[in-house]
Every structure is written in structure tokens, then in C-alpha cells.
Amino acid sequence: EVQLQASGGGLVQAGGSLRLSCAASGFTFDDYAIGWFRQAPGKEREGVSCFTSRDERIYYTDSAKGRFTFSSDSAKNTLYLQMNSLKSEDTAVYYCAKYAGSRWYRYGMDYWGKGTQVTVSS
Q1: Where in the chain does DSSP place strands (E)?
Q2: In sequence order, what are the residues at sequence separation of 6 or more whose Cβ sits closer than 8 angstroms to the Cβ of residue 105?
Q3: How confident is the model over 78-109, as pLDDT tens digits?
Q4: Which of 5, 9, 44, 100 shows the smallest number of beta carbons within 10 Å?
Q5: Beta carbons within 10 angstroms of residue 71's beta carbon
């Protein structure tokens, strides 16, 4: 059974940092693309950062570039999202997701974890 569990969210002041973690199980970590998404109140869910292990390509949404860093530890089946210089507009529920294939740009997501709330106060 595929399971994804995000953690690490919380309340932080603008300019601060948080590190999200996502523990994954039930699939071979290196065989699938994985990613971080977020959904702010009243907005659609958006991709924040995605990674495909086959060619080590990492995607960042424009608003995350230069501030967020994706990383993963295949030995621990865990992915991370280091978020620095947080802004109020980063406030959202953050989710991790597994793609149906090894490349995020070719496949859709097939499993989602429960989200973790990130609140940035201005």
C-alpha cells in the first residue's frame, strides 16, 4: 500500500524558514517521480517542486525558485522541501505526491499524502 505522510509545517514569521518532510512507503522510491504541491485558501492546488530520479531533473514553480530547495533521501524513502525567505503568500496546505511514472513531465500524480499546514505571518 502506497503511503505518503507530510510533516514539518507550522507557523512562522515572514522571512523565516521551514523544512517539510514526506515519508513515503509502499513503492520503490527511485522508480517514480515525486513532488510537493500546495493549496492556499480559495485557490487551486499548484505544483511547487517535483523531482524525477531517472534524469535528476528538478522543477520549481517560479515563486519557489531561489527560496525553496527540494531534496530526497532514497535510503530513508523521504523527500524534503527546505523553504527559506518565506512570504505570506506561501501560506497553504502543502502536500507530497507520487507520480504514476518516473518522469513528472510525462505522468500525472496517482497518490497523495495528507497535507501539512504552513502559515506565514507578515
Answers
A1: 3-7, 10-13, 18-25, 34-39, 46-52, 57-60, 68-73, 78-83, 92-99, 109-112, 116-121
A2: 52, 57, 59
A3: 999 999 999 999 999 999 999 999 988 888 99
A4: 44
A5: 13
